[in-house]
Amino acid sequence: MKKILIFASGSGSNFEAIVKHFGGNCAYCFELLTDKENSGAIERAKRLGVKFHHVKFKNTFEFLLNKKYDLYVLAGYMRILPEDVLKLGTFINIHPSLLPKFKGINAIEQAYNAGESKAGVSVHYVVGEVDSGEIIEQESVEIKSDMTLEELECEIHKIEHKIYPNVIERILNEQI
Ligand code: GRF
Questions:
Q1: Which of 21, 95, 124, 157 is flagged as catalytic?
Q2: Per-residue pLDDT at 24 exceeds 90
Q3: What residue owns the CA closest to ligand 1's atom 1?
Q4: For ligand 1, is residue 120 a contact (CB within 6 Å)?
Q5: Residue 54 contacts by C-beta under 8 Å, 6 or more apart in sequence?
Q6: For strand 71-74 and strand 91-95, is the pairing parallel, antiparallel, or unpaired?
Q7: pLDDT tens digit sequence for 104-162
Q8: Residue 132, pLDDT score
């Protein structure tokens, strides 16, 4: 059985898409780690019956130290993990831009306001520097001239919910 720890601080829509993709397959066991006591991700974990851990950011290393996961998946975890944590295993992240463009927060809005013709999603390995690790997969979407920011955000999230579970499955099956 593969054990996967998903880190999420926010609404948790990617967390839910990942868990649902694997649909209770016993070969994969998911847990949630959140640094936010009232995160939407916790509500989703309760609804989905996924074990969750509320861990303050400063206690992350201590929490992980004597545990073993096959993969660590950041899905809207709004913190920069230190090197001692990153050394514990393989960490991946999803970012709503075509990296290396538009790192950091509000990436969709940044691309939209910059008048780009395309935006997109990147899945990448996590390194100490924000949104800078090796890219595993990217998918782009055209920013049509009549598109609102909300419509673009919606398109981006649809792509995220599709490509992140697929990349995770391929990593766990050693196809990447
Ligand atoms: C996503 O847009 C993801 O790319 C970024 O944070 C957002 C998390 O959204 N890293 P959600 O909490 O999964 O809905």
A1: 95
A2: no
A3: 76
A4: no
A5: 34, 35, 36, 37, 42
A6: parallel
A7: 999 999 999 999 999 999 999 999 999 999 999 999 999 999 999 999 999 999 999 99
A8: 95
95 is catalytic: yes
> Per the structure block, which two tokens stand in for 111?
């691309």
119 closest CA partner among 104, 133, 140: 140
Percent share of the chain, pLDDT over 70: 100
Asked if residue 155 has its Cβ within 6 Å of ligand 1, the reply is no
Q: Are 143 and 122 in contact (CB under 8 A)?
A: no
Residue 68's pLDDT band (cuts 50, 70, 90): very high
In the DSSP assignment, the letter for residue 149 is H
Q: Which residues of 77-113 are buried (b: 16+ CB within 10 A; e: fewer)?
A: beeebeeebbebeebbbbbbbbbebbeeeebbebbbe
> Is 42 a pocket residue for ligand 1 (Cβ < 6 Å)?
no
Ranges of beta strands (E only) in the chain are 2-7, 28-34, 51-54, 71-74, 91-95, 118-125, 135-142
Give SS3 for 95: strand
